[in-house]
Amino acid sequence: xxxxxxxxxxxxxxxxxxxxxxxxxxxxxxxxxxxxxxxxxxxxxxxxxxxxxxxxxxxxxxxxxxxxxxxxxxxxxxxxxxxxxxxxxxxxxxxxxxxxxxxxxxxxxxxxxxxxxxxxxxxx
Length: 124
Known about the structure:
The protein is mostly beta strands. The protein has one helix and eleven strands, in the order E-E-H-E-E-E-E-E-E-E-E-E.
């Protein structure tokens, strides 16, 4: 990651490649959703960070009432416009993307980081 002249983070496909094989968590307390999935591919294309998941699960309780129950979600593609997200290294190899505009927080975990066990996901 690098900062540009305006102070916002610049991400590249090369920088994000280290997260392939790791988990990504997406949550939005305002819209009450919490997703977690295994990153198959990630790239920066134009103004977007684009992620393709091997599988994606939705927490049945959401971020406001999280449960231990996860259910398979059929969506496998995710995109975030870097113009409305700030990126920060939050330690232990994790990258956090945060957008107060849409109320979403995204955390990318390296392959040896925190993982959701796919055996715990209903329908997977």
